[in-house]
Write a structure and sequence with these properties.
By secondary structure, the protein is mainly β. The protein contains 8 helices and 39 strands. It has one domain. The termini are far apart.
Length: about 550
Amino acid sequence: MAESLAEKMFFKNKQECPEPRKATVRGHIPEWLQGTLLRNGPGRHTVGDTTYNHWFDGMALLHSFTFKKGEVYYRSKFLRGDSYNSNTEANRIVVSEFGTMAYPDPCKNIFSKATSYLSHIIPEFSDNCLINIMKCGEDYYATTETNFLRKIDPLTLDTLEKVDYSKYVAVNIATSHPHYDKDGNILNVGTSIADKGRTKYMIFQIPSSPPEKKRRNSCLKHAEVLCAIPSFGLINPSYYHSFGMTENYIIFVEQPFKLDILKLATAYFRGVNWASCLSFHKEEKTWIHVVDKRTKKPIATKFYADALIVFHHVNAYEEDGHLLVDIIAYKDNSLYEMFYLTNLKLDLDANSSLASIPVCQRFVIPLHHDMNADMGVNVVRLPYVTAQAIKEKEGVIYCLPEVLCEGIELPCINYDYNGKKYKYIYAAHVEWRPVPTEIVKFNIHTRETLTWKEEHCWPAEPLFVPTPDAKEEDEGLILSTIVTSDPKKVPFLLILDGKTFKEVARASVDVDMHVDLHGIFIPERALSTDGLHTDTSVGQPGLK
């Protein structure tokens, strides 16, 4: 019996390819593209006779494409963290993930361990770091949305030490999408859930290198909290996946998609997964917090919008006393629900989708509005935007977004333009299917779109690599891993011209490649500079 689309792409366990395998290149890869594209995502969904409930629970599989003088070499390895090792040793899922609650000893009643879970508000999460890759000083880490990171070797893909954010900053969870400033410092957001008192969102910074007298220390040991924002939900914090940053401001969206801490603390006792402790409150507001990086304090005005859910920020920048904040927004939490494997199989095999359409929205935040403006007046003073900011009462502004486009997700920009006025969004395009069918280049100014599409091909998040000494924003290459549902085709790495969106080359590899989530490109000079290797390298788009 033939495999269904869902089984082939999302359910089937993948095999790792630990030794470099030379890809077949069609087209011409520019000589300047030297380095490694490193990607992360779930690659194993069953262990023994047990199966994860949610696609985002699958065990992390790293894979890479290394470019050397026009040739491309592929390899992949599972992230061998504590979770992976425990599951493999037991030959069953014994470590809980967000959508799957596991019980280490199936012969024991769940109440036998309940007291240990109830002794902590937040249980210890998994170190299955399957979402992204972070550069931190000379080191590289696989990341997820918990307090754990896993250091990796970006060339061999070997798993190295386990790192706990909470040992350096008071956070229980943190985003897997940090930002990098012009000096290479990392900025990120985490949640601190105290036993007593109010939950807070912690904006913290990790230096690009340790202080001069402590060069042997990890950069993480010198992390510092820049600002703590009390949550509107008292002890029930907002879920979030990313945030925005400009030269002078951090933008954090506190959405009414909330984690019930009491339910979380008792989930094991009640025999339910942690994801069931998240709920969307459509009747509540979305709060937009703006933190001034110079003063390390939130600005006094309170900004809010209607209820929405955002996973990915696109970009944000400052102009004439305003912040322009671009996000991918949903009207509800159906996207997360869709990726339960039972729903995913139904969606893919029935050619339908349970999720709402993603909408690219622009919010305009007036930082210096007319304090004497009447109530009910739009205080946005930029002539070319339709987004509004309505003065509701003194110190409170209601924000109505402008729709830029619909149906795009996994957005990418030229990171050299992060926090700056920009023109282009590169993204995966989704319609009725829950997975992307196209890659698009969207011009924010003209609203024109360029598209790449090929039958039976399913692209991942595009990643922009700028041409050395580029003069224009779209001068560079787009890289995207492509899996295929056609048994006659093999998966490949697609390389597009960032300006024309025409195919430059593709590197095909005869492996059962997994659908990945996020990653980075590490230029050759980065690893040799970091002292890890001298023959190749890896890096974050936009870092010089």
